[in-house]
Amino acid sequence: MEAGAAGAADSQTTAASGEAAPKKARAFRHFAGEYVMIVLSIVTALGLENGVRQFNQAREAREAARNLDAEIAVNLAEMRAVVAHSDGEVKRLRRLQEILLADIKAGVGDEAAIQHVMHASGERFTVSLRTPSLQREAWDVAVANQALSFMSQEQLQRYARQYANMRDIQAMMLGAGGSFIDRPQLSNVMSNLEMSDITARELYRVLAQMSFVHESNSKNMRTLEKLLVGEQQRGLKQAGPKESSA
User: What is the pLDDT of residue 116?
Assistant: First the structure.
């Protein structure tokens, strides 16, 4: 009877083991399925987050590029207006210089020579020196919000060169104005001219200084215009194939 009882117990144990194995398999499959779903959910969420981030970065880069292009266009328009003004001033000042120099060489007295200049200038002598402001607010904003870091390397370098050129040329023009114009002397000459207490040579030197500064500024601005336009054309060539392929 003991042998029979042992056999029955073994058969029961075997039956229980047989029933537990499918349950474990089903539990493992359920766990594996849940695990895969969790992993897929995480990967999908990360992918969506990365996609949204890249979309926003591309949008910020495009917006920054539009603002930079608009600001550069404004600076170009301002420069061209200043160049036109400077060219007109050079022409006017050179003409007054010629009149004054001819009188000086001819030995005409200071009073008569000054009168000739005043008559040629419409009885009113003025000096006018303009320099472009060369705005860079859009660049500063793009640096502050890191939109520049979302641009391609070629695009970033192109804008960096343009703004570096504007900074350098502006510094040159401001330096030329301070180096070649004696502002206190200019103020004194203008005051003496109003009081009719000035020599022809003093006035001629002021005219020569102003002419030189205007010519120098015009040359620098034309150089800058050429550089900016060249970078813009290079940018259009780089964007052309990408736009056509898109």
Answer: 92
